[in-house]
Amino acid sequence: MPELDIVASDEHVYDVTITDDSGSESRHCVRVPESFLETYGLAASQEPLLVRASLLYLLEREPPSSIMASFTLDDVTRYFPDYPDDIRRLI
Predict the structure, then answer these.
(1) Which residues pair with 17 in a beta bridge?
(2) What percent of the chain has pLDDT over 90?
(3) How far apart are CA 81 and CA 90, in angstroms?
(4) Is 8 left (phi over 0), alpha (psi -120 to 50) or beta?
(5) For a Cys staple, 26 with which of 37, 64, 68, 91, CB 3.0–4.6 Å?
(6) What is the per-residue burial (b if ≥16 Cβ within 10 Å, else e) of 60-69?
(7) 70, burial (CB in 10 Å: exposed 0-12, middle 13-18, buried 19+)
(8) 23-49 pLDDT per residue, tens
(9) What pTM was computed for the model?
(10) What is the DSSP letter of 85?
(11) Which among 9, 39, 28, 31 is positioned nearest to 66, based on CA atoms?
(12) For the packed helices 83-90 and 47-59, what is the interaxial angle rounded to 10 degrees?
């Protein structure tokens, strides 16, 4: 299982480093639309939980190298239509 290091870099923006089992790293900038907090009934303090769950969701479907370097969680919904339902179960 890859290791995720998630650090808030700005309001609703997270820098994520994914380290796979071989030690390879990939870096990603993830933006959380404010509407997502309302949609999923989360407090702002729970944003890192949503980012972690979303990255784990993506890693189940593609390798770290295939995940965009910078994206919003809206982008995940566009590429993976089942994301909204699946992420509700994960969080």
Answers:
(1) 5, 27
(2) 76
(3) 15
(4) beta
(5) 64
(6) eeeebeebee
(7) exposed
(8) 899 999 999 998 988 988 898 899 999
(9) 0.92
(10) H
(11) 28
(12) 120
